[in-house]
Amino acid sequence: MHTDRFALSTAGLLAGTLMLAQAGCAGTGMSTAQSPAVPAVEIACSDTPAAELADDARSYTLPDSGGKLWLVPCIRGAYQTSYNAVWAPADGAPRRLLFAQWRNDSWTGTADLFDPEFDAESGVLSDRYKDRGIGDCGGARRWHWDGYDFRLVEYRARSECNGSAAPFPVIFEAPAQP
Fold first, then answer.
1. Which residue in 143, 33, 145, 32 sits closest to 87, CA to CA?
2. Which residues contact 89 (CB under 8 A, 6 or more apart)?
3. Most exposed: 24, 27, 85, 126, by fewest CB within 10 Å?
4. Taking the CB of residue 112, how many other CB atoms lie within 10 A of it?
């Protein structure tokens, strides 16, 4: 049984790789996913299959790379949607991206982005996650595409849910680039 699941998973990932590579060769800017969305979901949402959200996947041409960024919704909640990101380089295999996350006063990694926005011209990816619906606690993150990966530029977070509408305090801010 384990071998059968592994074979099916591997076949799905290979099909996804081929379809994402083909999709990465056309267009610029953002496009709404058509047929490549299902393989993007297989790669991006491997822990939480969400085929019903596949039509909401988005792709963008990444600056200076010739590849595509896929933002794939994996879990839709009451007040935010969790996305995973897949980078499909023009000359290589697609991979799911990981991002820094500040939780319980320490750093960890996550594949989850919450209601992300991407500016294809500047290469800036941002998201904002809420720890509860009113948004008085959680985090706001911003990254810049460096040609191979996203570099964390700014991270703001508030752990304490205190009803405040004030901006989240800065947890991390990258030094200015010359």
1. 145
2. 24, 65, 66, 67
3. 27
4. 18
79 by DSSP, 3-state: which? coil
Instruction: Sort 145 into a burial class: Cβ within 10 Å, 0-12 / 13-18 / 19+.
Output: buried
Cα distances (angstroms) measured from residue 152 to each of 52, 58, 73: 31, 21, 21
Q: Which residue has the tokens 């752990």?
A: 159
Asked if 144 and 90 count as a contact pair (C-beta separation under 8 A), the reply is no
pLDDT digit string, tens, across residues 37-52: 445 667 778 666 566 7
Are 38 and 51 a contacting pair, CB within 8 Å? yes
Burial of 51 (0-12, 13-18, 19+ CB in 10 A): exposed
CA 115 centroid distance within chain: 9
Between 160 and 15, the more confident residue is 160
Residues 130/132/137/142 CA torsion (nearest 10 deg): 0
pTM of the model: 0.74
pLDDT digits (tens, 9 = 90+) for 66-91: 788 999 998 888 889 999 999 888 88
